[in-house]
Amino acid sequence: MTTITINTRRAKRQDAEAIAEVHDKSWMNAYSGMLPHRALNRMVQRRGAAWWAQAIDRATVIHVLEIGGTIAGYATIGRNRVKTLPFDGEVYELYLLPEYQGVGLGSHLFLDALGELKRRGLKGAVVWVLADNHPAIRFYRNAGGREIAEGKETFDGVDLMKIAFAWEW
């Protein structure tokens, strides 16, 4: 019998290449057909391994999900960027390689991200999701998030609605 370990931890510089791969594949999977093609390609291309290495060097809080030593996902967290919302923390990004989605690993990584925000003394958290991203909306509703705000994001002149989910503690 083989035992596979599942672990979350703070990202290290040597993880940059793997994080870039997760970013590329998960964004193309999640947003193809939702975002304008050119905007999506630009966003994916600008976040290569060098970009992630710099983010790690700048102490951006990035946690990775490892499965059997392979990085299968990442989350970025920090202070809430929308000061009108009464929550201190924010999960900026939470992505898994497509082949690891739908089996509970995203929940494992999300709980780790919320736990890190709590450990840092931040009260509550928000996550922004594009309104057309139905799998993500289902995920955050199932994780106990409540919808608290709406906004819009513009990609190559196309306005897309987004929804904020919140958790209190």
Question: Helices and strands in order, then pairings?
Answer:
Layout (H helix, E strand, L loop, with lengths): L5 E5 L5 H16 L5 H9 L3 H9 L3 E7 L2 E10 L9 E8 L8 H15 L5 E6 L3 H9 L3 E10 L2 E10 L2
Parallel strand pairs: 4-5
Antiparallel strand pairs: 1-2, 2-3, 3-4, 5-7, 6-7
What does this 3D model show about the protein?
34% of the residues lie in helices and 33% in strands. The protein is of the alpha+beta class and 169 residues long. The chain has a single domain (6-167), classed as 3-Layer(aba) Sandwich (Aminopeptidase). A seven-stranded mixed β-sheet has the order 1-2-3-4-5-7-6. A hairpin with a 2-residue loop joins strand 2 and strand 3. Helix 1 (16-31) packs antiparallel against helix 2 and helix 1 packs across helix 3. The N and C termini lie far apart (40 Å). The mean pLDDT is 96.
Q: Report the helical percentage.
A: 25-40%
Largest sheet: 7 strands, mixed
Assign the CATH topology.
Aminopeptidase
Question: Quick one: how many beta strands?
Answer: 7
Instruction: Report the sheet-strand fraction.
Output: 25-35%
The number of distinct helices, counting runs of at least 4 residues, comes to: 5
Sequence stretches where pLDDT stays below 50 over 5 or more residues: none
Total discrete domains: 1
Class, according to the CATH hierarchy? Answer: Alpha Beta
Overall mean pLDDT stands at 96
Instruction: Assign an overall shape.
Output: globular
Computed over alpha carbons, the radius of gyration is 16 Å
Distance separating the two termini: 40 Å
- Spatial strand arrangement across the major sheet: 1-2-3-4-5-7-6
- What is the element string, with H for helices and E for strands? EHHHEEEHEHEE
CATH superfamily membership, which one? Answer: Gcn5-related N-acetyltransferase (GNAT)
Structure class: alpha+beta
Please name the CATH architecture: 3-Layer(aba) Sandwich
